[in-house]
Amino acid sequence: MVNGLNLALQFLDSFAFIVLAAAGLAIIFGIMGVINLAHGEFILVGAYATTLAATQLGLPLVVAMAAGTLVTALFGLVVERTIVSGAVPNAVGQRIAGRDVMEPLYDRLADSMVATFGLSLVMVQGARIVFGNSIDQIATPLGEIAYGAFSYSTYRVVLSGVSIAVLLVVYYVFTRTDYGMRARATIQDEETAKALGVDTERTYMTTFAVGSGLAGLTGALFAPIVSMQPTLGDQFLVEAFVAVVVGGPSVVLGTALSGGVLGAINAVFSNLFGTFVGRIMLLVAAMIALRFLPEGITGFIERVRTRRQEGA
Amino acid sequence: MSRRTVSRRRFVTAGGAALVSGLAGCSNSGGSGASTDGASSSDVVKIGVLEDQSGNFALVGDPKHKASMLAIEEINANGGIDGKEVEVYSRDPQSDNQRYQELTREMINENDVDVLWAGYSSATREAIRPIINRNEQLYFYTTQYEGGVCDKTTFAPGPTARQQLGTVLPYLREEYGPEIYTIAADYNFGQLSADWVKVLADEHDAEVVGEEFVPLSESSFGSTINRIQEADPDFVMSMLVGANHTSFYEQKASAGLEIPIGTSTAMAQGYEHRRLEPPAMANIYAGVNYMEEVPTESNTGDGGFVDRYFEKYPDAPYLNEEAETNYFSTYMYKQAVEQAGTTEQPEVIEALESGISLGTERAPEAPDGETIELDGATHHVDHHMWVLRADEEHNIEAVADRKVPEQFLSETVGCDLREEAEQTQYTPRDYYEEAE
Lengths: 312, 436
Known about the structure:
The structure holds two protein chains of two kinds. By secondary structure, chain A is an all-alpha fold. In chain A, about 75% of the residues lie in helices and about 5% in strands. Chain A has helices spanning about 5-30, 40-55, 60-85, 85-95, 110-130, 155-175, 180-190, 190-195, 200-220, 235-245, 250-275, 275-290, 295-310; strands spanning about 145, 150-155. Chain A has a two-stranded antiparallel sheet with strand order 1-2. Chain A is globular, with a radius of gyration of 20 Å. Chain B is an alpha/beta fold. In chain B, strands 7, 8, 9, 10, 11, 12, 13, 14 and 15 form a nine-stranded mixed beta sheet that branches. Chain B has a five-stranded parallel beta sheet with strand order 2-1-3-4-6, with helices on both faces. In chain B, strands 5-16 form a two-stranded antiparallel ribbon. The longest helix of chain B has 20 residues, at about 60-75. The chains are: A mainly alpha, B alpha/beta. Chains A and B meet through helix 1, helix 5, strand 2, helix 6 and helix 10 of A and helix 3, strand 8, helix 8 and helix 9 of B.
């Protein structure tokens, strides 16, 4: 027998996990054309920074989470300047050899994958060398909600609220602010945007930092829940990629829709048949989406809309 | 140029990889070289150690590596094995079974080791066992495991599922009642352990009311927790494995699932009671042969195993179950070589099969109990087993303990490797209807 409330809570849980895992990845991919295979390790930075801030510095959890998010955003900034845009190596190259040493990785999917995959390996091993095979973990706050024979972690319910808030904030930033306008202009046509006075390089830099910050926030939020060890990022990467593939090019809408669809699939199947089947069905959904909606859900919506306009 | 110099050069090469992975023990063999320059290879005992210092099993594998190095250092400091210096060959297989296969071949064919310790997971053991069998290599697999390996050149001195679960399950049955819910990692160890839970439940008049297998990559346990609550068992048996599954304990605590949990995997291996903030592990009962907290004289006594380990590795986080098995089995090997008077592998295996005990006056190293006895017929060990419970503050308390022999191979299967040189893994399904 499936309990309706169980199913609803499980859905919220899966929704939050998928949306939070995917948000940073979707922004960096959608806007910069960079596939960040080190996304899981950015989450690791956020989770470790939060945990260490709470356990070593004794900061209150919420402050530690903010610190973790900020640290990851700064880390993302450094990665963008050195590896993704190549600004720092090029400045050094200009001084020493009088020429640039690397091309930026923007819109170079395969190249960005290889570069960030290498980065992820270095980061995992680096975390292991610096912090050892695990660090002490903080407990999950807020207790539980009990109903009949069942109970559920309050914190996980709160997380689903946070994930919706994140989507709303991202939507606001990219549609209602000057930065958002510049960012969207840069994706649509970089040359024209540049001609109109948009500092595209700076836009890219900021976008990468924002995406990294979101990954850091995810790490911070999940720090009290997942096991603190150097490979923790792996747990998020698959869900994040599946969500981006299923969601399609529109960052906010795509992430929200795929979170909803995949969250529902995962909740129903893992409740009925266990976590294993839930996980399998996520991947099956991704395969079906790739076959029938190669542009993802939002790409499909876009196509339908264009067809209607042409018909009208 | 003697072979010895060659092997030292190989160590310099390995040192590069060692630096990257934070390997600590290589200096042992470098140091041992100085005193025996120009000696022929028969004057040393070559021990190969392949344990995970990185990758998914690093948390549990690294202490195994450290404990092997400690045992070898102690043995060398006390005159070696039968007067011969021990030379260690150690590489990091990075929790990667393919790398394990390559390194196993390297250990056997290039380094020509006299004995090999290798591997954390059952999957790893099964990946390298064909190579070991082909080369008739003396091999120690030291993880606690599902049991049933009856193999002429393999020694499995870790406790088996029947020993571990057979210690904790009857205890919880008496304390809490007959209904059991099993959650286990979804690979051969978890599947076979779950079968053992069914067999043991039947033997102790209990019943498995639910069962779930969780993929190793899973770290969200919301629906698992709900399913346990729906089944409403008297206690849970958990054979979850690896870093991702650790999340279960934190999540069940935050979801308010307050149920006693028996386990053969948590705490003793990944020291979750130290890593997680209380009360995540409250009321969890480990059925194990060893944890750092086991209250025996040769373990926690003055100058005991714990003291010596942390003196050598002051920054090590925990001394786990498998580390102890690496440690005492190295001493078992020493005793067997001295008894055989040679490092020739068939003779050493014969000596091991004669039944080697630790905890005696001659070989006092037995941190898990009074005595640790190797059963020559099955190549398994009769352990002193403990039920160790974590309380609300994560303090560990021993609630029961007794000597438990290996039973499945010796009594049920009738494996006798002294009579017949097999290379089989037997499973409970071959013998018990309940396990089906």
